[in-house]
Amino acid sequence: MSARIDRRALAARIAQDIPEGSIVNLGIGAPTLIADYLPDGLEIILHTENGLLGMGPAPEAGRVDPDLINAGKQPVTELVGAAYFHHADSFGMMRGGHLDICVLGAFQVSQRGDLANWHTGGADAIPAVGGAMDLAIGAKQVFVMTDLLTRDGASKIVDECSYPLTGRRCVNRIYTDRAVFDVTDHGLAVTEVFGDTTVDDLREITRLDLVDATPATTSTGSPA
Prior knowledge:
The chain is of the alpha/beta class.
């Protein structure tokens, strides 16, 4: 059994946790995949920081409208009732607390919920803050979608972020390719593991004293 799941499977998993009636912003990169997996029949309104409310999933091949893009310049669709507005109005929605959930990528997340996702601090790195800071402090809930490990094998979930922060204590939940973590007052709690990953594996990888909050069975329904 694999110890991890791919990004599309993770996007589908996150989509299950978005309740009906939510207004949601999906950050640039992997989080945009979530739009393709939102349950049919539920009213979930997707917001893009470049000025669209009511974004739909990615268009089918041959049906791309070049005027319809998300903040990452990817082609999208619009749902019935979609609205367009100025960039400044979009940021007013973000900063004004009108978004229920945002899902962001990350370079690092601390066990207290600090987020670093705009700059690695490297001399040759290109910073890309976009609207991440506004989303991190403005959304009612902040979810992170990321691989648990960097390409060099280091954990992205850390005791203290070493990269410049996007926001302090802003993250509520972290979805990774190996497990789901909730940020709590008592530290990070592992609520779900994927494949044959164990909580002890995660403790070894992250070097953190993680709380085991997993149910009696894994996400596959097999005995834990």
